[in-house]
């Protein structure tokens, strides 16, 4: 129903969606839906060929951090963290319908989920700093409950990022030595997580600026 949209814009006519019978139809427009007070659905599609308002199962599980259990006559929404049931959709004409009272409960669950996700993220970053910026993967094993409501790959720590930058990039230079061994570039790498059979865990490189000849020597300790 286009009257449910706000911030509505017409489609270019090139976008199409597939129907259950294998055919496709054009998308008439796109906009934002306001469902039950302040719950907004961004990027909702207006397809005039659809007689019903459909809700994406994938979108619902991501928003609520829940799982859906389907049976012949109902669909149960269950919170992944608490295990509590947060909604029921009853089967009707091949679809699972969410009545208004269930949708209201879903709105409340969404608000609680967002608040829980924010609180868990703040607690997670607090302990990350208190433990001396411990890697996220290790912290996840210490506090698994804090990581159940958000994805670790979606967060970052500015302090950790800056700490990895040991120095600024070297300035570009167009000069070159005029003879061999007049200017030598050297660098030490290590320690390696795996040692050689002889106990070497570092190596040092010497590069001649004129000929680009490279010499590599293995080291057991950086002090060598």
From TrEMBL:
Residue span(s) of domain GAG-pre-integrase = 94-165
Question: Which SUPFAM superfamilies does the UniProt record give?
Answer: Ribonuclease H-like
Query: What Pfam family does this protein match (any one)?
Result: gag_pre-integrs
| Record GO terms (molecular function) | nucleic acid binding
Xref: InterPro entries? GAG-pre-integrase_dom, Retrotran_Ty1/copia-like, RNaseH-like_sf, RNaseH_sf
Q: What is this protein called?
A: GAG-pre-integrase domain-containing protein
Q: Which organism is it from?
A: Nymphaea colorata
């Amino acid at each position: 129903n286009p009257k449910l949209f706000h911030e509505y814009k017409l489609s270019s006519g090139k976008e199409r969606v597939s129907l259950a019978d294998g055919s496709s139809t054009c998308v008439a427009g796109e906009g934002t839906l306001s469902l039950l007070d302040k719950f907004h659905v961004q990027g909702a599609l207006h397809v005039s060929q659809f007689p019903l308002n459909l809700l994406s199962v994938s979108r619902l599980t991501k928003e609520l951090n829940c799982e859906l259990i389907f049976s012949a006559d109902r669909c149960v929404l269950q919170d992944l963290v608490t295990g509590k049931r947060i909604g029921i959709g009853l089967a009707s004409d091949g679809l699972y319908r969410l009545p208004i009272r269930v949708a209201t409960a879903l709105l409340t669950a969404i608000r609680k989920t967002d608040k829980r996700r924010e609180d868990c993220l703040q607690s997670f970053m607090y302990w990350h700093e208190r433990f001396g910026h411990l890697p996220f993967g290790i912290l996840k094993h210490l506090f698994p409950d804090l990581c159940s409501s958000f994805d670790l790959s979606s967060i970052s720590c500015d302090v950790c990022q800056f700490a990895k930058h040991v120095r600024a990039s070297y300035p570009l230079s167009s000069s070159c030595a005029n003879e061999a061994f007049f200017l030598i570039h050297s660098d030490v790498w290590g320690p390696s997580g795996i040692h050689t059979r002889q106990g070497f865990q570092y190596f040092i490189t010497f590069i001649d600026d004129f000929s680009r000849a490279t010499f590599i020597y293995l080291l057991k300790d950086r002090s060598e």
